[in-house]
Amino acid sequence: MEVTEASVLMLPFAASSVGVARQRLVSDLIADGIGDSAVCDVALVFSELLSNALRHAGPLPGAQIRVAWRLDPDSVQVSVRDGGGQTQPELGQPTQAATGGRGLRIVEKLSQGWGTSRDDEGTTVWARVPVSRLTTDRTPAGLPVVARESR
Questions:
Q1: Which end of the chain is more exposed for a tag (fewer CB within 10 A), N or C?
Q2: Helix %, strand %, coil % for the chain, to 5?
Q3: How far, in Å, CA of 46 to CA of 101, rounded?
């Protein structure tokens, strides 16, 4: 199965939504044959964006948050839309002793790119994470063989 449409979820603006959204995302990626390490990278980036929105912004109308992802041939784009906050998402300069402030640095490291957009209704933060798909070939005996495509 190849996911060609973007998956969009409207979830409660609550910490419990992180696990719900991540589980749906991971299920879609696995169903589309995305390799294990790429699934982990996408899930981590997605969780960081969602957690940051819950920590630093307000909800959309109805006390909700919007999450979405789109699978492209060699990447997955994830996005989180919230009701906006006092500050714009930016890379922090955490000290060695700081217990936070590294989330967007992780996003930057694992992504091909990330960014934000803001309008009257809120803020969207997105990231594009490179992925590779697993392919299934048949051996002469007809047994399935799983091989990784190169990135």
A1: N
A2: 30, 35, 35
A3: 16
